[in-house]
# Entry
Amino acid sequence: MTVSTALELRNVIRRFGTVVAVNDVSLNVSKGEFVTLLGPSGSGKTSTLRLVGGFENLDGGSILLNGQRIDHLPAYRRDTATIFQSGALFPHKTVAENVAYGLRMRNVPKDAIMKRISESLDIVRLKGFEARYPAQLSGGQKQRVALARSLAVRPAILLFDEPLSALDLSLRLQLRAEIKRLHDELKFTAIYVTHDQGEAMAMSSRVAVMNAGAIEQIDKPETVFHSPTSEFVYTFIGESCCLPVRVTSAGIEDKKGQAVGLRLGERLAEGECRIYVRPSRLRLISEAALLPNQLTARIHFIEFLGDLYRYHLKAGALELAADHAGSIGHGVGDEIEIGWRNEDMRVFR
# Structure
């Protein structure tokens, strides 16, 4: 472990009976990094976080924090702090008492505790809320108190266990921005678990996409989005249209063996493949005519999504969706041209 590394997971394994929840995961988190574990339910992201926090026991591998092994230590002896989905505040304690709890457990002097309570509540913009009880707070305020409590103990690493998932959309967006602001200002080290791609992309230094207990790809958010290393990562990150086709010497067929009006700018090897394009990368009608990859399709139905229209289209057995900033002047049943650039297309076999 280098000096700049805060946390290191070495070939970590966690089993539940015959199920391998965490499968030989290795991960380095540098000091000041905000690393998000992103993946669907059952991918191993929460189990990995719980192993770091000491809430689960290892079945293999090791965990080091600032160069020292911690996997043999109970949760309360690890230099970590976890922010849970519920906030996990003590209902019978005031905001100040909740923030002070971890400090008292660490035997911090009383005068230092009062100073840290004040500093922590100021950071999360809850100065003046010291005497309130959790029942008197909104959901967002409770999570900010939980964050203040964790920041107050100044842990080596903060662990976020889907802390925003129980909040409504507008509040999630506000707190997402707040956590991002705090990380930019305080440079704390964090592991954040979520299944929300927007949170992962907006907040993280790096994103680790997990699947079946393993990390499929870890990189900067922009790299994971634009340069996925596997079909799973491509389909999980962002929205995509899948065109399952068979390439033959005579042309391109859909899964029913029918020829479709798909013209590609690059020749593909013969055989079955899946062509992916994101809805936001598809262009319609006159714009499509200028692009190397084109498909003639019929409008199946249209969704109005506020900032854009989503056109759902069919071409034989192929189905796809294209986003457009405004109405294109065509309706359901009309045939239109769709186009996309070579660099906006991914092909998997």
In short: The mean pLDDT is 92. The helical segments are 45-53, 95-105, 110-123, 139-152, 169-186, 197-203, 221-226, 231-236.
